[in-house]
Each structure stands twice: as structure tokens, then as C-alpha cells.
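Input (structure):
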């Protein structure tokens, strides 16, 4: 079928909305009419960093309504409301032990551009293959995705609020709820008051930590962080030394640090701000780190890389939606909505810092 999709035709080039061909779903796949799709930094990386073969159809935070299912699909049926998340194989040792975000095939399924069997489901009108993104490419009017990518959700909640549960919000909240699990009266710092970081703030606030510190360089985002539960904020544009600023709040050092930015010098500051036996989680696309072994071993500290909050999307996302309905996970406060023809404006507003979570809606 012919659909309209968002294409990055070569590295760093402006994205374009083009008519393309989408194949019918295979036995293990689901056809979804897209209602809304969030944009996050990984879409920008997909456009600019060469992490996926070009041309690539972007989008990985989709939500929509099932139109057709393959013959072996059991978890959803036509008419179901769904969120589309990351791809995983379902049969490697990590998937089978309940950690699909650690799937040994995750990188090839999300960034390799093709299906697990090496085929492509998206094509130009001339018949050339187009890479998929996260196994879904949801910045498009329709999506075909493997059943593993698809999560049935509450039909009573407007889908325009739910697409970003599939990556950014799942990553931030899942890191806290599935792995950090901060103890009573603990201290935690979260860097980056974007969608991922603020989702982590909302999740951490559920534990009522003694200190919940948020670091960013935008006062307006830090103000939102305070609304969402941050006890303290630090603007990196207004302090000379981040470690000193943290130690003024928590002299003994932090129990936990979560970085969603990926800026190497700031990550080093976070590590140095931990108390003995503290843990640092890297959940953004991290740059080069200037560390020594003694920075870690000398005080028994840990650096942990985590993808997608180590979540099982089919179990975790419905839980997030329950908290959203209760007002305890108010992701709608972070969103601005754009029509599909405004997709380039949405990317520009996002990369300039004007918007925390742009969401494209489809008629």
C-alpha cells in the first residue's frame, strides 16, 4: 500500500515527507493506522549520525489503531489501540530471561534497517529498499511492525498522549522503577530535563527521596522539574563547578546519578559526586569519557549502561498508563502537538530546546 513517511535520505540532510510503498504484514506482523508519534533525540541521531543505513524512514514512538494482523499474531486484533516500542527477537537468552531491552539482536533489529530475516517492508515508488527505524518507522501514516514491537493499551486514553511511552518515557521511568529503585531517604541526581530525564524525575518522586536534584541549562525546564518533584535544581550555565554545586546540597555525596545527556565532562562530575558505593546510570547517547580505573574502583562505584529502562514493554507501558490516568505520571505537561506537515518545524523546535516532547498527530 502507498503511505506517506518521513525520510532521511542521507546523513545530516533535512528530512522529507514522501509517498512510499509499505508491504502487507507477514504472519508475525501487525498493520497499524498511526494516530500520533513522539519525537526524541534518537530520531535526531538517526537523521544525523549514520546509525542506520540511508535512506531511512524515521519514527519510533508510535501509537495507533490496529487495521490488520498476520496469521500467527495472538496479542492484538483489528480495532485495538496500541503503542509501538523497540524491536527484540523474543528467543535469545536475555529475552527469555525477561530482559528484552538487552536482546542480543536489539541493535540489528532497531538500527540495522531490515527485518530479522533480512527483508525490507518499505520501498520507494521506484522499488528501492528503505531502512526501517526501531523496526517500526512510525513517523508515517501507517506502520507495519513485528508483534514483539506492539503493546495493547487502554482504549479510554487518547492515543496522542501515549506514543512516547514506547521509548523516551519508558527509558526514563523504567531506569528508576526497574533498576535504580532508590531506598527511602536516598539522594539522586538526574541530568537533562528533557522527556527522558523528566520521566525519570516523575518516577523517582514516587519514592519520596530525601534529595532529588535535576541538572539542566534551561531555567524553564528546571521549573517544570520542580513542579514534577525535584527538591533542588542546578543550572549548568550559572555554576562554575557542577560537583561543588552538588556537594553543597549533599555534602556526603549522592547515592545515585542518572545521566540522560551524554556529555562526557558532566558524566565525570557525576561520578565524582557519588558517595562510596554509589551508582551512575548512563541512559543517553554518551560521548567520550575521560575516566581512570581508580575513579571507579577506588571507591567501589559502578557505572551502568541501560537501554529502554530494562523494561518489558507489554507489561511496563500499561502500568505507566495507569499512573498517567491517576495524575501521577503527567507526561502531557511536557508535550506540544504538531500536524504531520509540521514535522520539520517539530524537529527544529525540539533541537533548539523550545519544546520538551514534540508529538506529531495524524488525521
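Output (sequence):
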Amino acid at each position: 500500500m502507498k503511505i506517506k513517511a518521513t525520510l532521511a535520505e542521507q546523513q545530516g540532510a533535512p528530512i522529507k515527507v514522501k509517498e512510499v510503498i509499505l508491504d502487507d504484514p507477514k504472519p508475525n506482523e501487525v498493520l497499524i493506522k498511526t494516530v500520533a508519534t513522539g519525537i526524541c533525540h534518537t530520531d535526531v541521531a538517526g537523521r544525523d549520525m549514520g546509525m542506520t543505513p540511508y535512506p531511512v524512514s524515521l519514527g519510533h514512538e508510535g501509537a495507533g489503531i490496529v487495521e490488520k494482523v498476520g496469521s500467527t499474531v495472538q496479542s492484538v486484533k483489528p480495532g485495538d489501540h496500541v503503542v509501538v516500542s523497540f524491536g527484540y527477537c523474543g528467543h535469545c537468552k536475555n529475552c527469555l530471561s525477561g530482559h528484552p531491552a538487552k536482546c542480543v539482536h536489539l541493535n540489528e533489529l532497531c538500527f540495522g534497517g531490515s527485518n530479522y530475516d533480512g527483508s525490507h517492508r518499505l520501498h520507494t515508488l521506484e522499488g528501492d529498499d528503505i531502512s526501517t527505524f526501531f523496526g517500526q518507522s512510525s513517523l508515517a501514516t501507517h506502520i507495519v511492525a513485528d508483534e514483539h514491537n506492539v503493546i495493547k493499551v487502554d482504549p479510554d486514553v487518547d492515543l496522542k498522549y501515549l506514543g512516547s511511552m514506547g521509548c523516551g518515557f519508558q527509558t526514563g521511568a523504567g531506569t528508576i522503577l526497574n533498576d535504580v529503585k532508590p531506598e527511602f531517604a536516598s539522594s539522586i541526581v538526574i541530568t537533562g530535563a528533557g522527556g527522558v530525564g523528566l520521566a525519570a524525575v516523575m518516577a523517582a518522586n514516587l519514592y519520596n527521596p530525601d534529595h532529588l536534584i535535576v541538572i539542566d541549562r534551561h531555567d524553564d525546564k528546571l521549573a517544570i522539574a520542580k513542579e514534577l518533584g525535584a527538591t533542588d535544581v542546578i543550572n549548568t550555565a550559572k555554576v562554575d563547578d557542577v560537583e561543588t554545586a552538588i556537594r553543597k546540597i549533599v555534602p556526603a555525596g549522592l547515592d545515585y546519578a542518572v545521566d540522560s545527556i551524554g556529555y562526557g565532562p558532566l558524566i565525570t562530575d557525576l561520578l565524582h559526586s557519588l558517595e562510596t558505593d554509589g551508582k551512575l546510570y548512563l541512559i543517553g547517547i554518551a560521548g567520550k569519557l575521560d575516566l581512570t580505573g581508580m575513579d571507579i574502583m577506588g571507591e567501589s562505584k559502578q557505572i551502568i549502561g541501560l537501554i529502554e529502562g530494562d523494561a518489558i514493554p507489554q507489561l511496563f507501558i500499561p502500568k505507566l498508563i495507569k499512573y498517567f490516568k491517576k495524575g501521577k505520571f503527567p507526561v502531557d505537561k511536557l508535550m506540544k502537538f504538531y500536524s504531520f506537515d509540521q514535522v520539520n518545524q517539530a524537529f527544529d523546535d525540539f533541537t533548539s530546546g523550545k519544546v520538551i516532547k514534540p508529538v506529531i498527530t495524524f488525521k
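Notes: The longest strand covers residues 29-38. The chain has a mean pLDDT of 96.
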